[in-house]
Amino acid sequence: MDLKSLSKRVLWQNTEALIKVDRHTTIELLHHLLEVKSRRLHIEYGFTNLWDMLTRGYGYAEGSAQRRLSAMDLIHTHPEVEKRIIDGRLSLSVAALMQVCLRKKSFTARQRDDLLRDLEGKSTRDAERVIAKIIPKAIPKDKETALTIEHTQLTIVIDETLRLQIEKLKALLSHIKPNMTNAELLKYLTEQGLKKFDKTQAPTRPRKSRLPPAQAVSYSRIRIPRSIERAVRQRDQNRCTYVDSVSGRACTATHLIQCDHIIPVAYGGTNNIENLRLRCQAHNLLAAVQAFGKRKMAPHFRQQ
Question: Within 13 A of 15's CA, how many CA atoms are on the CB side?
């Protein structure tokens, strides 16, 4: 099939259909694994257990195999989970986490239903936090472990408030460094702190603009005043406001957020707050393509 010949609507519909088929296929695989287990066929065919069969026999990564086996056990004992995996309310990873949780602690039927409801729609990380409230882990002390001559592993425990502040700061700094790691953030903040508080360092002077006068004047005409940009970011809560007109699905990205002109400046748009909105990099580029064409914007494309 020549996918490039498909319209965007057909391509999207086909993709959604394949995702649904994939979920159904996953459930079918779990049921087949249950039947193989009940008949002990894996032993007859030379494997010591199902995990050995999936990893050694069929090349599954260890984590991928374990997730499927945990989800298999979950749908066996709690069939109501199956429908939630099929319709996407529960990912395979979260289903596996739920099974691990149920193994470690006894739940009443109501508590199990509450746990299932709390896990629906959660990412793996958020699901881990839900489970941590039920089965808290011991909080370790800060620790430094030498890995190489130049690298040390720093282990710290932070509270939820600080974690959210770190995520917000990463989003605000995403224009400087997209997908910033915790180590990169710590290095950046340390360098900025030393510049400010270490009096032994020579002060750095701000760089002068290298733009020629004509370009500088042109830039100043279209630059959005900081007070206006601040008001737009407060209004839009510093997140992308794109909403798909067909499905009503909203983008909630907080990284690489840019002020976008609803009516482009090239078409007479102004810097009035009513003509400004927040867009993530991907949806800002989409608006530019819709306004100026794909060919003109092609140099700005990145793989999304």
Answer: 8
- Residue 257 · residue 237 · CB < 8 Å: no
Task: Write down the pTM of the prediction.
Answer: 0.69
Residue where the block lists tokens 């090239």: 266
Fold exhibited by the domain 220-300: DNA Binding (I), subunit A (1.10.30)
pLDDT in tens, 59-75: 999 999 999 999 999 99
How remote is the C-alpha of 25 from its chain's centroid?
Answer: 25
| Domain parsing of the chain, residue ranges | 3-134, 220-300
Helix 160-172 crosses helix 182-197 at what angle (to 10 degrees)?
A: 80
Contact 112, 102 (CB under 8 A): yes
Question: Which residue(s) pair with 154 in the sheet?
Answer: 144
Which tokens belong to 168? 């917000």
φ and ψ at residue 152, rounded to 5 degrees: -130, 135
Locate all alpha helices (DSSP H) within the chain, ordered by sequence: 8-39, 41-44, 50-52, 62-77, 80-86, 92-104, 109-119, 124-134, 160-172, 182-197, 213-222, 226-235, 281-292, 294-297
Half-sphere exposure of 174 (CA within 13 A, CB side): 18
Q: CB of 277 within 8 A of CB of 254?
A: no
Model confidence over 82-116: pLDDT tens digits?
Answer: 999 999 999 999 999 999 999 999 999 999 999 99
